[in-house]
Structures are given as C-alpha cells and as structure tokens.
Amino acid sequence: MESNGKDWLQSKVSVVYRGATGRTARTSVVRVAEIHGRPVTITRKPVKNMYLRIQSKDGRISVTAPFRISDGTIRDFIENRWDWIEHAEKELNKARNAAMESGTSHVWSTARKREARQRMNDVLPALLNKWLPIVGREPSNISLRLMTTRWGSCTPATRRIRLNLELAWLEPELLEYVLVHELTHLWASGHGASFQRYMTTFMPDWKHRRRTLNRHIIG
Length: 219
What we know:
Elements: E1 9-18, E2 24-35, E3 38-44, E4 51-54, E5 61-65, H1 71-80, H2 82-102, H3 110-135, E6 141-145, E7 152-155, E8 160-164, H4 172-184, H5 193-202, H6 206-214
Parallel strand pairs: 3-5, 6-8
Antiparallel strand pairs: 1-2, 2-3, 4-5, 7-8
C-alpha cells in the first residue's frame, strides 16, 4: 500500500438504524480504499470473519469485515491476498474472452438454470446417503439457487442449507466439499477451531478442496 496511515481510506458512509429501544445502532460502515491504484470497497458490518470478493460483472474488489477489526489489519488482509486478486482477475478476463470468442455468456437462461438444477438433483441423493451418516446431522431443507457471493450457506437455527447452482458446472468433488462444509455448520456455526476440527474429521482433504474451489470465481 502506498501509505501506512489512514489516508488510504478515501471515503466513508455510515448506515444506521434506530432499534426498538430508541438507541441508534450501526448496521454497516462503507469505505473506499485505494490500493495499488485500485479502488477497494470495504464494508464493516456485524459479521464474525473477513471476506474478500471480486465481482464477476465489473471486477470490483470488495472486503467485508467485522467492526472490531482495525484498519491496519484490513489493509494487511488485502495486501497478503493481492497475488490471489491478480490471479483471479486474469482468470476472469480469460473467461470473458472465451465467452466473447464462442459467442456464449454466463447469462442464466431458464434452460440453463433447469439443466444446472437437474445435474445437482441427479447427484445430491447419493452424496447425502454417503455424508449424512458421517456428519451425523440432517438438514431440514436443501434448496438450489443462484448466489452471487457464496457457494453455499447454512442457517443452523432452521437447519436450512442453500447451494449455488453454479456448482453444477464444477468438479464433482467441489460440490461434495461445499455440501459437507454446510452440513458441518449444523455442528459449528462459525469457521473457527471447532468447525475446522469437525471438517478434518469428516473430510480430511477439505483444505485441498477449498483451495481448488477458491480458484473459481462466482458468477
């Protein structure tokens, strides 16, 4: 980064709401940082971990972080992942160029959604038969949908799991990894040491699969 001070944070917008008690509470704080000449949108909100994303449509870089994380920690988080950002952008450009040359695009037509849903429905029963006895907990519902920032999600309180339809086009072991990842959230809601211990017990090679999945760009 060009500066060690806070001047790399170019602007700030606070979003607030007034709760039932009458107290004002922040829901998010959005800042724009300039890093290596690139704008990076940094959003602080009530989350547990930091996340970095590259938007497939416009290449915009965004980071979500908890309120408690310092500016310096966020700056280091971005800097330490800059090589990954550049690699992901190259892969995104390759995909765009290939789509232009072939005359195809990533527009999700009704037929494409139907095919993706069918692909996943064809393999999910066998995966669930394999992994539910291993994980030892069962979701109340699994839904398939397009997701712009995640490969999957889980709401432990309701035991509902959502999987990204884009997984239909990836390697089968990556769909398997995301499914087990979300099932594991039925034991541990966060991604801390407890969650990682469960994952290692259930799927010893999960970190390798995660690295492979992280080379793919959502969207």
